[in-house]
């Protein structure tokens, strides 16, 4: 926890920039879930993910070549296999699982997916504890339970008994949760590529992950599990791709990795709490108004996140003293 504490030291000159990057990234990511609600009525999530990251990947590549030249494409001693694995988990895993779950969940999918994203700090804590082979503090574990209790209020709309009799809840929520964990894994893996800039890490993992996304799409087309989109379908999702590719795919992810490089992933994932606030606000404008139980659940998850962060910081200061 010392590295996380050091990142918030007042003398850290780039702290404000890191916060700005993370907040901007999560706001842009929050908008993408309501956008996807309509897009998924026209096309499957796998094809959309391929198209989205082809657009974003092209922008990343152009920027990398402009900033770092051809040397930006060299491995510099880092593992290309690990970069491919993390890109596959982060982009193919996140895009496929989360958006498939959102599609199954229907109109409420945007709210469900966004609140699942807010559990990522807690997932990050569990992942960090697993890597360090050290159990999280008991108090933090209680906050984790509080966080997921808030999530359950959102996804069940406060009616747990009714949700238990609707099997689609299980599959949709499980898929979104797995997708959220994929993004946590991708975010935390960035610190392993110390010789790569955030831009280089983002670009190379995007393109390496794209090989998995496109291969999956080809297999799904060949097995007729997913239909090849028609020209009409592609034209229908063109406006959605204009946001999901250049904005949510390029700008948001670049800002996210830049912010996490400055603040460290343990601190950066805290800003995921901004994401459901944005998604709830945009969904309300589009006609999907969250109920009182869902708002209460989102507040509970946010409170758990903030209280746990304050507890861990106080605990780290005591240990340092």
Summarize the structure.
The chain is 78% helix and 0% strand.
What are the key terms here?
globular; about 325 residues; 16 helices; mainly alpha
Description of the structure:
78% of the residues lie in helices and 0% in strands. It has 16 helices and no strands. Helix 4 runs antiparallel to helix 9 (168-189) and helix 6 crosses helix 9 (168-189). The longest helix has 29 residues, at 292-320. It has one domain. It is globular and about 60 Å long. The protein is mostly helical and 321 residues long. Mean pLDDT is 81; it is low at 1-12.
Beta fraction: under 5%
What percent of the residues sit in helical stretches (DSSP H or I)? Answer: over 70%
The end-to-end span amounts to 14 Å
Count of domains: 1
Which structural class is indicated by helix and strand composition? mainly alpha
Shape: globular
- Radius of gyration, CA atoms, in whole angstroms: 19 Å
Write the layout of secondary structure elements.
Layout: H1 2-7, H2 15-39, H3 45-68, H4 80-105, H5 109-117, H6 120-132, H7 138-156, H8 160-164, H9 168-189, H10 198-222, H11 231-236, H12 238-244, H13 246-263, H14 265-268, H15 274-285, H16 292-320
Helix pairs in contact: 2-5, 2-13, 2-15, 3-4, 3-10, 3-13, 4-5, 4-9, 4-10, 5-9, 5-15, 6-9, 7-16, 10-13, 12-13
């Amino acid at each position: 926890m010392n590295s996380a504490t050091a990142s918030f030291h007042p003398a850290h000159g780039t702290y404000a920039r890191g916060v700005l990057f993370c907040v901007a990234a999560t706001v842009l990511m929050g908008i993408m879930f309501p956008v996807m609600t309509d897009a998924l009525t026209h096309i499957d999530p796998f094809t959309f993910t391929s198209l989205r990251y082809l657009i974003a990947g092209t922008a990343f590549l152009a920027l990398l070549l402009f900033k770092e030249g051809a040397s930006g494409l060299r491995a510099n001693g880092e593992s290309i296999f690990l970069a491919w694995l993390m890109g596959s988990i982060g982009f193919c895993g996140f895009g496929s699982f989360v958006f498939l779950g959102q599609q199954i969940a229907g109109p409420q999918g945007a709210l469900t997916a966004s609140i699942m994203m807010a559990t990522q700090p807690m997932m990050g804590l569990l992942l960090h504890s697993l890597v360090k082979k050290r159990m999280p503090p008991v108090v933090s574990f209680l906050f984790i339970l509080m966080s997921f209790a808030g999530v359950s209020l959102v996804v069940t709309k406060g009616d747990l008994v009714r949700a238990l009799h609707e099997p689609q809840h299980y599959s949709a929520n499980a898929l979104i949760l797995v997708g959220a964990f994929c993004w946590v894994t991708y975010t935390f893996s960035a610190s392993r590529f110390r010789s790569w800039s955030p831009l280089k890490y983002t670009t190379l993992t995007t393109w390496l992950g794209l090989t998995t996304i496109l291969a999956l799409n080809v297999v799904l087309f060949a097995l007729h599990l997913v239909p090849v989109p028609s020209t009409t379908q592609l034209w229908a999702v063109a406006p959605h791709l204009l946001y999901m590719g250049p904005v949510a795919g390029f700008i948001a992810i670049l800002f996210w990795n830049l912010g996490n490089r400055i603040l460290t992933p343990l601190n950066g994932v805290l800003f995921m709490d901004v994401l459901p606030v944005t998604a709830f606000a945009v969904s309300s404008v589009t006609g999907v108004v969250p109920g009182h139980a869902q708002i209460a659940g989102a507040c509970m998850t946010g409170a758990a996140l903030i209280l746990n962060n304050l507890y861990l910081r106080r605990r780290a200061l005591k240990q340092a003293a």
